[in-house]
Inverse folding.
């Protein structure tokens, strides 16, 4: 495990890099805010570090194979040009830690999307059930 405390221009932050039980490389960033004293850093290590690590334990950080690289298809040259320009505009991740943090961020985003979709569907089903129940009550003739 490696922890680097640095100033990113606005806030003081810690970059924690480690390998989990499965041997997967993981990294996350913890923002301290103002310049941390030694006591603040030690308090983070002893109190909060375990919670932060367990938050990311269920996330796999291996890079999936790109399907376009596996099957070389003949593609439209204009499309290839657009894709190259799009790739140029994308910010470059320079370190392994940044790539791992981006993967963790993307997977958490997917989880949140799935969870909110399930909640929306459940609310929609509940509303439908209430509507059906109301229709049945009207037909009873109370």
């Amino acid at each position: 495990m490696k922890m680097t405390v640095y100033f990113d221009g606005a806030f003081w932050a810690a970059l924690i890099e480690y390998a989990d039980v499965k041997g997967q490389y993981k990294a996350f960033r913890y923002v301290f805010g103002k310049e941390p004293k030694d006591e603040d850093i030690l308090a983070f290590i002893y109190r909060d570090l375990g919670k932060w690590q367990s938050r990311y334990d269920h996330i796999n950080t291996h890079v999936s194979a790109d399907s376009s690289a596996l099957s070389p298809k003949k593609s439209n040259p204009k499309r290839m040009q657009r894709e190259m320009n799009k790739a140029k505009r994308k910010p470059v991740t320079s370190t392994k830690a940044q790539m791992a943090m981006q993967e963790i961020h993307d997977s958490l985003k997917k989880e949140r999307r799935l969870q909110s979709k399930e909640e929306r569907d459940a609310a929609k089903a509940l509303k439908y059930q209430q509507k059906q129940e109301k229709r049945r009550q009207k037909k009873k003739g109370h």
Q: What stands out?
A: The chain has four helices and three strands.
